[in-house]
Specification:
The chain is α/β, with parallel strands linked by helices and 212 residues long. The chain has a domain of 142 residues: OB fold (Dihydrolipoamide Acetyltransferase, E2P), CATH 2.40.50. The protein is built from five helices and six strands; from the N terminus they run H-H-H-E-H-E-E-H-E-E-E. It has a five-stranded mixed barrel. The longest helix is centred in the N-terminal third of the chain and has 10 residues. It is globular and about 45 Å long.
């Protein structure tokens, strides 16, 4: 009679099947890691480098000692270009009171047919000859462009462009790049892929330093 009672208790889980072992739940314990489950691979703790560890371009990568053979003046290119075009043009650094932007690789350029102030009269008649303040404002607006140096993601480099590649106000430059912005108010923004830097003109030869 006692044995029959013990069998009933065992069947209903009220006593352990083996007196030497503790009772266990019907369900197996949940694995603590994805590897122990066997139904999914463990998530790697490190990621593969993006882009094959290719270094981001720097301003130094943009400058070249080779001047393009064909480099039309800025104003003519600006009149016809649309956003997304790849363009090449000749210009001079300047066109505004600040030719360079502090802390960012952005600078202004002007069409080479425009006359900077130092070519108009006495050498010291204008404190900032690169601002072209003696030129007609409408003509100046039509002949201006903003040039940017960017990284591989299209972000402007956080360093002034002044001095890079021997860039300085009033020098001739040949810019090759992509038109990023343009509007009817005169805005013309080009992200440069290559920049050739020339010299400065003088009143006796306004094309001196253009390389043409």
């Amino acid at each position: 009679m006692f044995m029959r009672f013990l069998v009933v208790l065992t069947l209903y889980g009220l006593v352990a099947c083996d007196p030497g072992k503790a009772p266990q739940d019907d369900a197996k314990a949940t694995p603590t890691t994805s590897e122990s489950r066997g139904d999914a691979k463990a998530t790697p703790t490190t990621s593969k480098p993006q882009g094959g560890n290719k270094a981001m371009p720097t301003a130094a990568d943009v400058f070249t000692n080779t001047r393009p053979a064909e480099a039309p003046n800025l104003a003519g290119i600006k009149a016809k270009a649309v956003t997304g075009d790849t363009v090449t043009f000749l210009a001079r650094v300047g066109g505004k009171r600040k030719a360079f932007i502090d802390g960012l690789s952005i600078f202004n350029v002007a069409d080479p047919k425009l006359t900077s102030c130092e070519l108009m009269g006495d050498e010291d008649h204008c404190a900032k000859p690169w601002d072209y303040c003696c030129e007609d404002k409408d003509v100046l607006t039509a002949g201006l462009a903003t040039v940017r140096l960017t990284d591989g993601e299209g972000k402007v480099l956080k360093k002034s462009a002044e001095g890079q590649g021997e860039l300085e106000a009033l020098k001739f430059v040949v810019i090759t790049g992509i038109v990023r912005e343009k509007n009817d108010e005169g805005l013309f923004v080009v992200d440069a892929s290559k920049i050739w830097v020339g010299g400065k003109p003088n009143r006796g030869n306004p094309l001196e330093g253009s390389g043409g």
